[in-house]
Amino acid sequence: MNSDWLFPFLFWSSCLQPYVDFGLKVVGIDLMSVPILYRFVQEIIKDQVANMYHWPKTLEVQILDPAKAFDRPVGLLHVKVIRALKLKKKDLLGASDPYVKIKLTDSKLPSKQTTVKMKNLNPEWNEDFNFTVKDPLTQVLKLHVIDWEQIGKHDKMGMNEVPLKDLTPDEPKLMTLALVKKKDTNDAQNDKSRGQLVVELTYKPFKEEELPKTFQQTKTLLVRAPDNTPDGGGMLVVIVHEAEDVEGKHHNNPYVRILFRGEKRKTKKIRKTRDPRWEEEFTFMLDEPPINDKIHLEVYSSSSRIGLRRPKESLGFIEINLSNVVNNKRINERYHLIDSKNGRIQIELQWRTKD
């Protein structure tokens, strides 16, 4: 090669930026269809990989771990809170009013809780709860026994924890847990007796062939509207799941009232709790999609005492524009309650049609 041609060739070769094409798929889904993610990964590829290529060939670059790309549930934990024994009273006058608060670590869902047993140091609940499990090797079930107070902060009576890795799959395990102040073996206060909590735990892993089905059901399954639904219309479904940190000045017996197009519906009243769970469903049959409508939901508390009754209290409210649910068919959100200090409520809305 003539030396007069060598320098121009090298200059052209060093300046030419090769075109690099790539894809990023996880369990069959093209994540490059997400614009923000596409631009981010594109810059990584250009900076670190593009300069390696001057002829067509391929290279697999693992940006995401496919096993962790979707946080899929792998099983179900069934918790039966049976009873507590020999609890130590927290109230100066009379016995305590205990309930159990249950939480699974590494879960975005709020805690669940039993009903309150009034003036009882040996309460029996026999109440069942289910939790979806994502990693049985690391997740831990936390159980707290708490003394309910009508006014002021609730008092902690004791707690304990159960790592899910200690459970044998598909085998119910009856456990009598010694209640401690905190899960710290070096804490001197754990030597003090605080009573016991009796629970039955069963971890049921999903079968391998059930995993995709279960995942798809939790993400996309929607029920069609009944055959008598008006043409061009549909069914609006309102599911009131639960609330947390709702608090009245005189009582805490919350229920939810729904107001939509002049119709009023309401849930059952849950006595003596700041964290009620209703799981109630209401339906409205409509002739047309409620694109321009709003729905009003308000949490109230009313007295449960016989005789002298205090008036009902509003614990907070929300208004939801329904255009979003019509366009997306389903929304399931947790909302901060207006006119409430810390209260939140979880509402699911569905727009069902015959199509």
Automatic annotation (TrEMBL):
<dbReference type="InterPro" id="IPR045050">
    <property type="entry name" value="Synaptotagmin_plant"/>
</dbReference>
<keyword id="KW-1133">Transmembrane helix</keyword>
<keyword id="KW-0479">Metal-binding</keyword>
<keyword id="KW-0446">Lipid-binding</keyword>
<keyword id="KW-0472">Membrane</keyword>
<dbReference type="InterPro" id="IPR000008">
    <property type="entry name" value="C2_dom"/>
</dbReference>
<keyword id="KW-0813">Transport</keyword>
<dbReference type="GO" id="GO:0046872">
    <property type="term" value="F:metal ion binding"/>
</dbReference>
<comment type="similarity">
    <text>Belongs to the synaptotagmin family.</text>
</comment>
<dbReference type="GO" id="GO:0006869">
    <property type="term" value="P:lipid transport"/>
</dbReference>
<feature type="domain" description="C2">
    <location>
        <begin position="55"/>
        <end position="177"/>
    </location>
</feature>
<keyword id="KW-0106">Calcium</keyword>
<feature type="domain" description="C2">
    <location>
        <begin position="217"/>
        <end position="335"/>
    </location>
</feature>
<dbReference type="InterPro" id="IPR035892">
    <property type="entry name" value="C2_domain_sf"/>
</dbReference>
<keyword id="KW-0812">Transmembrane</keyword>
<keyword id="KW-0677">Repeat</keyword>
<dbReference type="GO" id="GO:0005783">
    <property type="term" value="C:endoplasmic reticulum"/>
</dbReference>
<protein>
    <recommendedName>
        <fullName>C2 domain-containing protein</fullName>
    </recommendedName>
</protein>
<dbReference type="GO" id="GO:0016020">
    <property type="term" value="C:membrane"/>
</dbReference>
<dbReference type="GO" id="GO:0008289">
    <property type="term" value="F:lipid binding"/>
</dbReference>
<dbReference type="Pfam" id="PF00168">
    <property type="entry name" value="C2"/>
</dbReference>
<keyword id="KW-0445">Lipid transport</keyword>
